[in-house]
Records
---
Amino acid sequence: MIFNIQRYSTHDGPGIRTVVFLKGCSLSCRWCQNPESRSRTRDLLFDERLCLAGCDLCQQAAPQVIERALNGLLIHREKLNDAQLNALTDCCPTQALSVCGETQSVDEIMATVLRDKPFYLRSGGGITLSGGEPFMNPKLAQALLQSSHQQGIHTAVETCLHVPWRYIAPSLPYVDLFLADLKHVDDAVFHQWTGGSARRVLDNLKRLAQAGKKITIRVPLIPGFNADEASIKAITTFAANELNVSDIHFLPYHTLGMNKYHLLGEPYTAPEKALDAPQLLAFAENFARQKGLTATLRG
């Protein structure tokens, strides 16, 4: 199950890349910018701004799920199933209603990836698996990475590493670069904001380092969670001392994904303002350099 393939990306690894977004994640980070990626199954999104008054095509397609109310559509998401999602796919002429997620075979995905192979070769680019968490789909991830590797295409994975090691290990020979999130080193704080285990992530990072894999550490800086000097010191020190990496990217928090929660009918519980802390970002860069790391700020 994938939910997007983005061609000509320049922000998800070196060179020009094709990013394949896989659905499914074992974390529930409050600030997640792709909440439609969390579920391993399809999701229904509704943008009321695009809904046409008087149109009833969606009600005809799935009357058990869609009702017309005084203030717009009433969607009974708890009643959604595959048959109704199939009926709602492409039924809306304005895309006010859209179904996120589709099943594609390895061959179908690779056909898209291979269209841009000349650009990869000229720019040092390739394929990047993203999500969600790509290793929540370990067989698909391995098949795509192996096929790309055999085609001489550089491979990268954007990962939170919050999966059992056995999900990651089969793909190791075929991954050239891990773009790995290191959100926090405190297990209690990590669990409070993500619902997961920092210990699992840290253990997997150590295993990747022991396997000699190339890792770029990425740190999303979230107000109230880790956007403070103490957290940045702890994260950066772990990266430098325990992983022996050379690159660390700091990603200041933004709210560009906030509207997606509304489209999914879900509450947004992260801060409602983007991080505005130039002194903190300068501290993060300087401290990383003191630890021997190459620090980069990514918007």
Note: The mean pLDDT is 95.
---
Amino acid sequence: MARTVDAPTAPEKQMLSEQVYAQLRAAIMRGEYAPGDALKPQELSRQQGVSLAVVREALVRLVGEGLADRLTNRGFAVPAFSDHRWQQIGEARRAIEPVLLRMSIERGDVTWEGEVRAAHHRLARTPVYTPQDGEYYSEEWAEAHRVFHRTLLQGCGNPVLLETFDRMWVASELARRWSSHRNPERDGIEEHRRLEEAALARDPDTAADILIQHLTLTTAALADREA
């Protein structure tokens, strides 16, 4: 008599979905999928050795983060350059993040100042590129970059606004990495140094202007590539 295989329990399914999500997210961020590439649930199910339901759950999560598109025929794909979402996200960040930065400069205490200094020191000392990452930013630098920007803003003391930043950051991370291909000569080190300097000098106008320029350059670089 054939032995039946028990269906995974809810916790097991959740764990499998988390694993598939993490693997797909990392592959997309490393550039293993080109812009517009299809993410086929059945194919991914076979590759990962998991059910279609597990794969779809992971893909829906990626859609929510802006790292995948759900197509009209119920398929999935890596976002394409022709999608103007990235410019829209850039516009949203330029509208919201300078406000949070001004609030941080106004409300941030000495502890916040120390955290900003530490985050910038880590960012400045982390290699932007490593051999295993090829033309893309290194994983370590990408995380140091995220921490620096979030630390600059977290002095605002408003968790709801910080959650908004977190969602926008994830949605724009892929676009930012793509833009790094376009302008490898960009002096990000100097941009971040000026940001730290203006924030710790408690100069909200200068800090906001620098941040807007910083965000605009990333959006413009992607627009150049899209053209």
Note: The first strand starts at residue 38 and ends at 39.
